[in-house]
Amino acid sequence: MPTGVPVNRLAFYSRGMRNITADEVRNEVDEWLRANWDPELSVREWWRRLAGSGLAAPMLPVEVGGRGYTRDLAAVVHSALARGGCVGPPLGMGISLVSPTIAVHGTPEQKRDLIGEILLGEVSWCQLFSEPNSGSDLAGLQCRAEVDGDEFVITGQKVWTTGGQFADKGMLLARTNFDAPKHQGITFFAFDMHQPGVEVRPLREMTGRAMFNEVFISEARVHRDNIIGGLHNGWAVANTTLMFERASIGSGGGGNFGVAIPGTVAKQLERRVGDFVTSRPSTAAGSVGSGIVKQFTELARARGILDDAVVRQGIAELYVLTEVNKLNVLRARSGQNLTGVEGNLAKMLMTHTLRRTRDIGSAILGPGAVLWGEDAPTGGALQEMVVYSPAPAIYGGTDQVQRNIVGERGLGLPKEPGDFRTVPFRDLPKNG
Question: Any residues with CB less than 8 A from the CB of 270 and at least 6 apart, and which?
Fold first, then answer.
C-alpha cells in the first residue's frame, strides 16, 4: 500500500471489525484534512498523502490501499473532501475502473504494482474497448493479439477512447482466439500506450472539446505477464469493468473538488496543488445531481418565472427523478440487489434525467439557451450540457444495450436468437 503522512492505523485496519457510521467517517476525513491539506504541496506529494490514508479509493480492499468502504461511505469521503476545499484523488479510469477490476481479477503482483501507481497518480489509464465495427456489439471486436514467444503482437483500431491523449496505459480487449465462439476468445491486457505502433488521434465533439479519441495500433507489443484475469477470459473481466463503469455513471460520480490530471503526459504532478482548487459550482455537462434542482430554482427565481406552472412542474419532475435515482443507488449500495441490474437501471435513469435537465433548463433560459461562451447565462455551462446531452445515452453501453441486459438478466426474458454462442468467431457474419 502506498505510504504517506501517518494515519490512525489501528482504526484504519480494524474497520472491518465494527460498523462504522457516516458521521465517524466524515469527522475523521475533516480531521485528516486539517492535518494534511496544504495548497503549497506538489500534486505528487498531495496524492501520496491521500493514498497513504486510504482515502484516494476508499471502496478498494484494505490490502490494496483502500478502506473496504461501501459505496455510501465512499460518497461521504468524497463529499467531505469536496467540502474541505482540497484537490480530490487522481480521478479517471485508473481509480474508477482499472483498480477495482484488478482488485477482483489481478494477480498479487498486479494488485501491488498496478493499483499502487494508480493511487499515487503516477499513471493515467484509458479504456481500449470499442472499435469502429464493435461499439454496442462489444464482443464483436476484431483487434487481434498474436502470440510471439512471451509477448503478444497487437494490431487493430479502437475508438471513443476517453482520455486517450493523456493515457500512459490502457485496458485493452483483443481477440486471442478466432476459432473460439464470439465471447470466449477475448483477452484483457494492461497495455503500454508509450510504445512504437500506437497512435492517438483526438476527436472533436459538438461541445468544441476533444474528450474522445481514436487509437490505431500497429504491431505493438504486450507481455504475457500483463494479461488480467487469464488468457481468453477477457469477456468476464470486461464485464466486471463495465459493471463498475455503469454503477459509477449512474451514481453521478464524485464530489465537486479540484481536479488534476494524473500520469506523465499532462505534466501536472510537480505543479502546486493549490492551483487546481476550484470554487465554481458543478454545472458541468453530465451533472444531474440534486444540486441542479437548487440551481434551476434560483435561476427561475432570478428570471421572474418561478411561479410559471410549467417551470414549477418541470423543476418538481427533476427533483423526483434525482430522488428516485438516489434511492436506487442507495438500494444498490446496501447490497439489496434484488435483480442484479441496479447499475444498468441507474445508468438509464441518469441519461433520462440528463435529457429532462436539458429540456427544463432550456425552458427556463428561453432564447438564452442557444447562446454560447462565458457571457451567456450560467456562463455557458447549461448550454454545454444541452449540446453534450446525447452522449451519456451512448457511452458505457447504449440505452438499448442496458434494456437488453435488464430484460435478459433481470426479468428473465428470452435472449436474442442466434448461434453466436457456439460458432467460431471467424465463421460468424460481420457483427453477427
Answer: 42, 43, 44
* Residues 204 and 222 both lie in one domain: yes
Residue 419: C-alpha distances to residues 141, 316, 378, 387, 428 (Å): 17, 48, 52, 40, 9
What backbone phi and psi angles, to 5 degrees, belong to 53?
-85, -10
Sign of torsion over alpha carbons 235, 237, 239, 242? negative
CATH assignment of the domain containing 38: 1.10.540.10
C-alpha cell at 55: 482515502
Instruction: Give the pLDDT score at 249.
Output: 66
User: What's residue 376's pLDDT?
Assistant: 81
Confirm whether pTM is higher than 0.90. Answer: no
Determine, yes or no, domain membership for 256: no
SS3 of residue 255 by DSSP = coil
pLDDT of res. 136? 76
Is residue 62 scored above 90 in pLDDT? yes
Nearest to 178 by CA among 216, 150, 217, 147: 147
Among 6, 4, 85, 77, smallest CA distance to 45 is for: 4
- The pLDDT tens digits of the residues spanning 323-338 come to 888 787 667 655 555 6
**291-302 vs 309-333: helix axis angle to the nearest 10?**
170
Residue 269 lies in a domain: no
316: CATH: 1.20.140
Q: In angstroms, rounded to a whole number, what is the distance separating the alpha carbons of residues 213 and 158?
A: 8
CA 146 from chain centre, in angstroms, equals: 30
Domain that holds residue 186: 125-238
- pLDDT tens digits along 306-325: 999 999 999 999 999 988 88
Q: Are 83 and 279 in contact (CB under 8 A)?
A: no
Residues 72 and 35 in one domain: yes
pLDDT-derived band at 283, boundaries 50, 70, 90: very low
Count how many domains the chain has.
3
* Residue 402 domain-assigned (yes or no): no
Centre a 10 Å sphere on the Cβ of residue 369 and count the other Cβ atoms it contains. 19
Residues 6 or more apart whose CB falls under 8 angstroms from that of 67 comprise 12, 15, 54, 55, 58, 59, 60, 73
